[in-house]
Protein backbone atom coordinates (compact mmCIF):
# COMPACT_ATOMS: atom_id res chain seq x y z
CA UNK A 1 0.00 0.00 0.00
CA UNK A 2 1.15 3.55 -0.70
CA UNK A 3 2.28 5.87 2.02
CA UNK A 4 0.22 8.87 3.03
CA UNK A 5 -0.42 11.36 0.26
CA UNK A 6 0.28 14.87 1.51
CA UNK A 7 -2.09 16.34 -1.08
CA UNK A 8 -5.05 14.33 0.24
CA UNK A 9 -7.57 16.13 2.45
CA UNK A 10 -7.25 15.28 6.16
CA UNK A 11 -9.18 12.20 7.25
CA UNK A 12 -12.48 13.05 9.02
CA UNK A 13 -13.62 11.23 12.13
CA UNK A 14 -15.05 7.74 11.75
CA UNK A 15 -18.41 8.88 13.20
CA UNK A 16 -18.73 11.74 10.74
CA UNK A 17 -17.78 9.49 7.83
CA UNK A 18 -20.26 6.81 8.87
CA UNK A 19 -23.01 9.42 9.30
CA UNK A 20 -22.22 10.82 5.85
CA UNK A 21 -22.61 7.33 4.41
CA UNK A 22 -25.96 6.96 6.16
CA UNK A 23 -27.21 10.23 4.64
CA UNK A 24 -25.87 9.17 1.24
CA UNK A 25 -27.80 5.90 1.49
CA UNK A 26 -30.99 7.65 2.60
CA UNK A 27 -30.69 10.11 -0.29
CA UNK A 28 -30.49 7.26 -2.78
CA UNK A 29 -33.88 6.06 -1.52
CA UNK A 30 -35.61 9.35 -2.33
CA UNK A 31 -36.43 10.13 -5.98
CA UNK A 32 -34.74 13.31 -7.13
CA UNK A 33 -32.09 13.33 -4.40
CA UNK A 34 -28.48 12.39 -5.16
CA UNK A 35 -26.22 10.61 -2.72
CA UNK A 36 -23.36 12.82 -3.89
CA UNK A 37 -25.36 15.84 -2.73
CA UNK A 38 -25.34 14.59 0.85
CA UNK A 39 -21.61 13.81 0.83
CA UNK A 40 -21.02 17.37 -0.39
CA UNK A 41 -23.43 18.88 2.14
CA UNK A 42 -21.68 17.30 5.13
CA UNK A 43 -18.27 18.48 3.96
CA UNK A 44 -16.81 15.11 2.94
CA UNK A 45 -16.73 15.64 -0.81
CA UNK A 46 -13.05 16.50 -1.31
CA UNK A 47 -12.04 13.49 0.79
CA UNK A 48 -14.51 11.26 -1.06
CA UNK A 49 -13.19 12.28 -4.50
CA UNK A 50 -9.60 11.84 -3.37
CA UNK A 51 -10.31 8.37 -1.99
CA UNK A 52 -12.15 7.24 -5.13
CA UNK A 53 -9.34 8.56 -7.35
CA UNK A 54 -6.72 6.73 -5.28
CA UNK A 55 -8.57 3.42 -5.22
CA UNK A 56 -9.31 3.53 -8.95
CA UNK A 57 -5.57 4.12 -9.49
CA UNK A 58 -4.90 1.01 -7.38
CA UNK A 59 -3.19 3.16 -4.76
CA UNK A 60 -4.65 1.24 -1.86
CA UNK A 61 -3.85 3.42 1.10
CA UNK A 62 -5.35 2.26 4.37
CA UNK A 63 -6.90 5.67 5.09
CA UNK A 64 -8.77 5.76 1.79
CA UNK A 65 -9.97 2.16 2.09
CA UNK A 66 -11.22 2.76 5.64
CA UNK A 67 -12.95 5.98 4.58
CA UNK A 68 -14.75 4.39 1.62
CA UNK A 69 -15.53 1.31 3.71
CA UNK A 70 -17.25 3.45 6.35
CA UNK A 71 -19.20 5.37 3.71
CA UNK A 72 -20.29 2.08 2.12
CA UNK A 73 -21.19 0.61 5.51
CA UNK A 74 -23.30 3.60 6.46
CA UNK A 75 -24.99 3.75 3.05
CA UNK A 76 -25.72 0.04 2.91
CA UNK A 77 -27.04 0.03 6.46
CA UNK A 78 -29.35 2.94 5.71
CA UNK A 79 -30.67 1.35 2.52
CA UNK A 80 -31.26 -2.05 4.13
CA UNK A 81 -32.85 -0.75 7.33
CA UNK A 82 -34.78 2.24 6.03
CA UNK A 83 -35.88 1.29 2.51
CA UNK A 84 -39.40 0.30 3.56
CA UNK A 85 -39.94 3.39 5.68
CA UNK A 86 -38.46 5.64 2.99
CA UNK A 87 -40.72 4.22 0.29
CA UNK A 88 -43.78 4.70 2.50
CA UNK A 89 -42.72 8.24 3.39
CA UNK A 90 -42.13 9.24 -0.22
CA UNK A 91 -45.37 7.58 -1.34
CA UNK A 92 -47.59 8.98 1.41
CA UNK A 93 -45.75 12.10 2.64
CA UNK A 94 -43.49 13.17 -0.19
CA UNK A 95 -43.68 16.78 0.96
CA UNK A 96 -42.12 15.78 4.29
CA UNK A 97 -39.27 13.82 2.68
CA UNK A 98 -38.49 16.64 0.25
CA UNK A 99 -38.61 19.28 3.01
CA UNK A 100 -36.11 17.30 5.07
CA UNK A 101 -33.67 16.86 2.19
CA UNK A 102 -34.01 20.50 1.10
CA UNK A 103 -32.93 21.43 4.61
CA UNK A 104 -30.05 18.94 4.58
CA UNK A 105 -28.88 20.31 1.24
CA UNK A 106 -29.05 23.95 2.29
CA UNK A 107 -27.32 23.14 5.56
CA UNK A 108 -24.14 22.37 3.65
CA UNK A 109 -23.97 25.66 1.74
CA UNK A 110 -22.25 27.88 4.38
CA UNK A 111 -19.21 25.63 4.75
CA UNK A 112 -18.88 25.18 0.99
CA UNK A 113 -19.34 28.92 0.36
CA UNK A 114 -16.34 29.61 2.61
CA UNK A 115 -14.21 27.54 0.24
CA UNK A 116 -15.15 29.94 -2.59
CA UNK A 117 -13.85 33.12 -0.92
CA UNK A 118 -12.66 35.60 -1.93
CA UNK A 119 -15.00 35.95 -4.87
CA UNK A 120 -13.80 36.55 -8.42
CA UNK A 121 -15.27 36.48 -11.95
CA UNK A 122 -14.14 32.85 -12.28
CA UNK A 123 -15.89 31.93 -9.01
CA UNK A 124 -19.14 33.66 -10.04
CA UNK A 125 -19.05 32.09 -13.52
CA UNK A 126 -18.41 28.63 -12.10
CA UNK A 127 -21.28 28.96 -9.64
CA UNK A 128 -23.62 30.11 -12.41
CA UNK A 129 -22.55 27.19 -14.61
CA UNK A 130 -23.28 24.63 -11.88
CA UNK A 131 -26.62 26.23 -11.07
CA UNK A 132 -27.52 26.48 -14.75
CA UNK A 133 -26.74 22.80 -15.35
CA UNK A 134 -29.09 21.77 -12.57
CA UNK A 135 -31.80 24.11 -13.90
CA UNK A 136 -31.53 22.48 -17.32
CA UNK A 137 -31.74 18.99 -15.82
CA UNK A 138 -34.70 19.99 -13.63
CA UNK A 139 -36.77 21.84 -16.21
CA UNK A 140 -35.38 21.82 -19.71
CA UNK A 141 -34.33 18.34 -20.83
CA UNK A 142 -36.40 15.83 -22.77
CA UNK A 143 -35.76 12.50 -24.46
CA UNK A 144 -32.91 12.88 -26.96
CA UNK A 145 -34.31 10.07 -29.10
CA UNK A 146 -30.92 8.82 -30.31
CA UNK A 147 -30.46 5.47 -32.03
CA UNK A 148 -29.13 2.82 -29.66
CA UNK A 149 -25.52 1.86 -30.46
CA UNK A 150 -22.49 0.56 -28.60
CA UNK A 151 -20.76 3.99 -28.49
CA UNK A 152 -23.96 5.56 -27.16
CA UNK A 153 -24.27 2.90 -24.45
CA UNK A 154 -20.63 3.45 -23.42
CA UNK A 155 -21.21 7.21 -23.24
CA UNK A 156 -24.45 6.89 -21.34
CA UNK A 157 -22.78 4.48 -18.91
CA UNK A 158 -20.11 7.09 -18.25
CA UNK A 159 -22.72 9.80 -17.67
CA UNK A 160 -24.84 7.55 -15.47
CA UNK A 161 -21.80 6.76 -13.34
CA UNK A 162 -21.48 10.47 -12.64
CA UNK A 163 -24.47 10.10 -10.31
CA UNK A 164 -22.07 8.38 -7.88
CA UNK A 165 -19.74 11.38 -7.90
CA UNK A 166 -21.49 14.57 -9.00
CA UNK A 167 -24.10 16.01 -6.64
CA UNK A 168 -27.62 16.30 -8.00
CA UNK A 169 -27.12 14.02 -11.01
CA UNK A 170 -29.39 10.97 -11.34
CA UNK A 171 -28.12 7.93 -13.22
CA UNK A 172 -31.59 6.70 -14.18
CA UNK A 173 -32.46 10.21 -15.39
CA UNK A 174 -29.46 10.13 -17.72
CA UNK A 175 -30.77 6.88 -19.19
CA UNK A 176 -34.18 8.50 -19.73
CA UNK A 177 -32.73 11.62 -21.35
CA UNK A 178 -30.88 9.59 -23.97
CA UNK A 179 -33.81 7.28 -24.58
CA UNK A 180 -32.10 4.04 -23.49
CA UNK A 181 -33.77 3.45 -20.13
CA UNK A 182 -36.03 0.70 -21.45
CA UNK A 183 -33.17 -1.02 -23.28
CA UNK A 184 -30.74 -0.95 -20.35
CA UNK A 185 -33.16 -1.73 -17.53
CA UNK A 186 -34.92 -4.35 -19.63
CA UNK A 187 -31.59 -6.09 -20.25
CA UNK A 188 -31.03 -6.35 -16.50
CA UNK A 189 -34.25 -8.25 -15.90
CA UNK A 190 -34.03 -11.92 -14.97
CA UNK A 191 -36.17 -12.86 -17.96
CA UNK A 192 -33.86 -11.12 -20.45
CA UNK A 193 -30.73 -12.54 -18.85
CA UNK A 194 -32.11 -16.08 -18.98
CA UNK A 195 -33.93 -16.03 -22.31
CA UNK A 196 -31.47 -14.00 -24.40
CA UNK A 197 -28.23 -13.78 -22.46
CA UNK A 198 -26.13 -12.72 -25.44
CA UNK A 199 -28.40 -9.78 -26.28
CA UNK A 200 -28.43 -8.64 -22.65
CA UNK A 201 -24.65 -8.81 -22.43
CA UNK A 202 -24.34 -6.74 -25.63
CA UNK A 203 -26.22 -3.97 -23.84
CA UNK A 204 -24.91 -4.34 -20.29
CA UNK A 205 -21.20 -4.76 -21.16
CA UNK A 206 -20.72 -1.37 -22.89
CA UNK A 207 -22.70 0.38 -20.14
CA UNK A 208 -20.44 -1.17 -17.49
CA UNK A 209 -17.32 -0.25 -19.49
CA UNK A 210 -18.56 3.33 -19.76
CA UNK A 211 -19.49 3.43 -16.07
CA UNK A 212 -16.06 2.20 -15.01
CA UNK A 213 -14.28 4.64 -17.30
CA UNK A 214 -16.55 7.46 -16.16
CA UNK A 215 -15.83 6.89 -12.49
CA UNK A 216 -12.06 6.71 -13.07
CA UNK A 217 -11.83 9.73 -15.36
CA UNK A 218 -14.29 11.93 -13.48
CA UNK A 219 -12.80 11.24 -10.06
CA UNK A 220 -9.30 12.09 -11.30
CA UNK A 221 -10.53 15.17 -13.16
CA UNK A 222 -12.38 16.48 -10.12
CA UNK A 223 -9.44 15.76 -7.84
CA UNK A 224 -7.13 17.68 -10.17
CA UNK A 225 -9.55 20.60 -10.49
CA UNK A 226 -10.06 20.83 -6.73
CA UNK A 227 -6.29 20.85 -6.21
CA UNK A 228 -5.36 23.29 -8.99
CA UNK A 229 -8.39 25.61 -9.02
CA UNK A 230 -9.97 25.18 -5.60
CA UNK A 231 -12.18 28.29 -5.44
CA UNK A 232 -13.82 28.04 -8.91
CA UNK A 233 -14.19 24.26 -8.49
CA UNK A 234 -15.89 24.64 -5.13
CA UNK A 235 -18.07 27.39 -6.62
CA UNK A 236 -19.23 25.02 -9.38
CA UNK A 237 -20.02 22.41 -6.72
CA UNK A 238 -21.90 25.05 -4.74
CA UNK A 239 -23.97 25.81 -7.85
CA UNK A 240 -24.75 22.09 -8.25
CA UNK A 241 -25.65 21.86 -4.55
CA UNK A 242 -28.00 24.85 -4.56
CA UNK A 243 -29.43 23.84 -7.94
CA UNK A 244 -30.19 20.32 -6.73
CA UNK A 245 -33.16 21.66 -4.74
CA UNK A 246 -34.85 23.11 -7.85
CA UNK A 247 -36.77 19.91 -8.44
CA UNK A 248 -37.55 19.34 -4.76
CA UNK A 249 -40.45 21.75 -4.19
CA UNK A 250 -42.09 19.94 -1.26
CA UNK A 251 -45.76 20.36 -2.09
CA UNK A 252 -45.99 17.95 -5.00
CA UNK A 253 -47.70 14.62 -5.40
CA UNK A 254 -47.49 11.90 -8.06
CA UNK A 255 -49.64 12.37 -11.13
CA UNK A 256 -49.93 8.56 -11.34
CA UNK A 257 -49.88 7.22 -7.75
CA UNK A 258 -50.12 3.58 -8.84
CA UNK A 259 -46.86 3.88 -10.77
CA UNK A 260 -45.10 6.02 -8.15
CA UNK A 261 -45.67 3.58 -5.28
CA UNK A 262 -43.12 0.75 -5.53
CA UNK A 263 -45.45 -2.03 -4.33
CA UNK A 264 -48.34 -0.87 -6.48
CA UNK A 265 -46.00 -0.45 -9.45
CA UNK A 266 -44.99 -4.11 -9.20
CA UNK A 267 -48.66 -5.10 -9.35
CA UNK A 268 -49.19 -2.88 -12.39
CA UNK A 269 -46.24 -4.43 -14.21
CA UNK A 270 -47.51 -7.94 -13.48
CA UNK A 271 -51.00 -7.12 -14.77
CA UNK A 272 -49.49 -5.76 -17.97
CA UNK A 273 -47.76 -9.12 -18.36
CA UNK A 274 -51.17 -10.81 -18.16
CA UNK A 275 -51.65 -11.53 -14.44
CA UNK A 276 -55.18 -11.47 -13.05
CA UNK A 277 -56.31 -10.18 -9.67
CA UNK A 278 -56.52 -13.73 -8.29
CA UNK A 279 -53.01 -14.52 -9.57
CA UNK A 280 -51.70 -11.38 -7.88
CA UNK A 281 -53.33 -12.49 -4.64
CA UNK A 282 -51.60 -15.88 -5.05
CA UNK A 283 -48.29 -14.02 -5.20
CA UNK A 284 -49.06 -12.21 -1.97
CA UNK A 285 -50.26 -8.94 -3.53
CA UNK A 286 -53.56 -8.28 -1.81
CA UNK A 287 -56.18 -5.59 -2.32
CA UNK A 288 -56.22 -5.61 -6.12
CA UNK A 289 -59.62 -6.04 -7.76
CA UNK A 290 -60.54 -7.08 -11.29
CA UNK A 291 -61.60 -3.46 -11.85
CA UNK A 292 -58.10 -2.29 -10.85
CA UNK A 293 -56.53 -4.72 -13.31
CA UNK A 294 -58.71 -3.51 -16.17
CA UNK A 295 -58.14 0.14 -15.29
CA UNK A 296 -54.35 -0.36 -15.27
CA UNK A 297 -54.39 -2.13 -18.60
CA UNK A 298 -56.41 0.69 -20.16
CA UNK A 299 -54.27 3.43 -18.62
CA UNK A 300 -50.78 1.96 -19.04
CA UNK A 301 -51.00 -0.87 -21.54
CA UNK A 302 -49.94 1.26 -24.49
CA UNK A 303 -46.91 2.67 -22.64
CA UNK A 304 -43.43 1.23 -22.92
CA UNK A 305 -41.25 0.67 -19.86
CA UNK A 306 -39.42 3.99 -20.27
CA UNK A 307 -42.69 5.86 -20.74
CA UNK A 308 -44.10 4.31 -17.57
CA UNK A 309 -40.90 5.32 -15.74
CA UNK A 310 -41.42 8.90 -16.84
CA UNK A 311 -45.05 8.76 -15.84
CA UNK A 312 -44.08 7.42 -12.42
CA UNK A 313 -41.80 10.42 -11.85
CA UNK A 314 -44.27 13.09 -12.96
CA UNK A 315 -45.49 15.29 -10.14
CA UNK A 316 -48.20 17.91 -9.81
CA UNK A 317 -48.24 20.71 -7.29
CA UNK A 318 -50.92 21.05 -4.66
CA UNK A 319 -51.92 23.78 -2.20
CA UNK A 320 -50.54 22.86 1.23
CA UNK A 321 -52.59 23.05 4.40
CA UNK A 322 -51.35 25.34 7.23
CA UNK A 323 -50.13 22.30 9.17
CA UNK A 324 -48.11 21.10 6.19
CA UNK A 325 -46.54 24.54 5.77
CA UNK A 326 -45.46 24.64 9.40
CA UNK A 327 -44.26 21.04 9.23
CA UNK A 328 -42.22 21.76 6.10
CA UNK A 329 -40.52 24.74 7.73
CA UNK A 330 -39.68 22.64 10.79
CA UNK A 331 -38.29 19.81 8.67
CA UNK A 332 -36.17 22.17 6.57
CA UNK A 333 -34.73 23.63 9.76
CA UNK A 334 -34.12 20.16 11.23
CA UNK A 335 -32.41 18.92 8.06
CA UNK A 336 -30.19 21.99 7.90
CA UNK A 337 -29.24 21.53 11.56
CA UNK A 338 -28.18 17.92 10.90
CA UNK A 339 -25.81 18.71 8.05
CA UNK A 340 -24.51 21.88 9.72
CA UNK A 341 -23.63 19.84 12.80
CA UNK A 342 -21.88 17.15 10.73
CA UNK A 343 -20.05 19.66 8.53
CA UNK A 344 -18.71 21.44 11.61
CA UNK A 345 -17.26 18.28 13.20
Write up what this structure looks like.
The protein has 345 residues and is an all-alpha fold. It has two domains: 14-253 and 318-343, no CATH class; 256-313. It contains 19 helices and two strands. The protein has a two-stranded antiparallel ribbon with strand order 1-2. Helix 3 packs across helix 4, helix 8 (150-161) crosses helix 12 and helix 10 (181-187) crosses helix 12. It starts with 13 loop residues before the first helix and ends with a helix.
Q: How many strands, which pairing sense, and closed or not: the largest β-sheet?
A: 2 strands, antiparallel
Taking Cα atoms only, what radius of gyration do you get, to the nearest Å?
Answer: 21 Å
Give the spatial strand order of the biggest sheet. Answer: 1-2
Question: In total, how many beta strands?
Answer: 2
The helix fraction, in percent, is over 70%
% residues in beta strands: under 5%
Straight-line N-to-C gap: 28 Å
Give the helices and strands as they follow along the chain: HHHHHHHHHHHHHEHHHHHEH
Q: Quaternary arrangement of the chains shown?
A: single chain
Q: Number of helix segments? A: 19
Low-confidence stretches: none
Give the structure's gist in a few sentences.
The protein is mainly alpha-helical and 345 residues long. The protein is built from 19 helices and 2 strands.
How do the helices and strands line up, and which of them pair or pack?
Elements (H helix, E strand, L loop, with lengths): L13 H15 L6 H7 L3 H12 L5 H31 L1 H14 L1 H6 L6 H20 L9 H12 L9 H7 L3 H7 L2 H6 L1 H32 L1 H14 L8 E3 L2 H4 L1 H11 L4 H6 L7 H11 L4 H9 L1 E3 L4 H22 L2
Antiparallel strand pairs: 1-2
Helix pairs in contact: 1-2, 1-4, 3-4, 3-12, 4-5, 5-19, 7-13, 8-9, 8-12, 10-12, 12-13
